[in-house]
Amino acid sequence: xxxxxSIAIGAFALLAxxxxxxxxxxxDGTRLEWRNELTVVPNTIKVNKVEHPGHTISxxxxxxxxxxxxxxxxxxxxxxxxxxxxxxxxxxxLPEVSEQPIVVFAAASTEKKAGLAKLTLAxxxxxxxxxxDNGAQAAAARELAVRLNKAVVQRQIDRYQKELDKVSEKxxxxxxxxxxxxxxxxxxxxxxxxAKAKRAKIEQNNARLHGEIAGLERKFALSNDPKDLxxxxxxxxKLAKNESGQAxxxxxxxxxxxxxxxxxxxxxxxxxxxxxxxESKEGLTRIVSELKRKQDNIR
Length: 299
Fold this sequence. Notes:
The protein is α+β, with helices and mostly antiparallel strands and 299 residues long. The chain is built from three helices and six strands. It has helices at residues 64-75, 136-223, 226-296; strands spanning 41-47, 50-60, 81-83, 87-92, 102-111, 116-124. The protein has a six-stranded antiparallel sheet with strand order 1-2-6-5-4-3. Helix 1 (64-75) packs across helix 2 (136-223). It starts with 40 loop residues before the first strand and ends with a helix. The relative contact order is 0.12.
């Protein structure tokens, strides 16, 4: 969005950002290194068709609208109000520039190719009289350039910190899901081992019953005694009952094994998500750290 006011560019051109093609950037183009030089360039600003002397600074990785928003946020606490086109801050308290409250006009333009905004300030005694410059205005403008460029980077930090917080929350949730799934796997495996142990005991008992039945069958074949037949029938019934129980346990084992496999698959899926979130978390942590270093380097 271009400002509706106009800026008369003087004979001096702003220095281009000193970013090289090797500079690190995020996927959305946010630069992770500060390689810019902050300069203050003499310029003019037009107010009611009259051009007044001013100072222009560069706000990197910003457009005109953003630059003016940041300027208003910076100047609101030290003025009694900001209005008009170009923007005008009233009763500005800048002791380093003037002992008396002053008026400061601000206008901005976007340098899209350079990836920056140019912000021009005019320090005035009132709406029509420029403030005599003793060199303090350029110093104040440069200090403002430092603050506003740091503010741009702070917005970048805030944006990525918000993403980092979300990913950290997801990572924690995935880790909790892994723990829950593993707990279910352990529970299913314990139940499975108990079922296997119980079936093994029954199988051992069945082996003994098979031997007992074989002996009773031989005895009955020789004696043909009804009492021996009764004993044989009783043991066979016991074996049949055990084999039925054994079949049920085998079915239970298969079900428990399926449950364990299901929970194990779930644990692996959650673990994969946790790993992915951990990787994203690591990357975002690095970005936030680099951006904070970038902000510290703005001087």
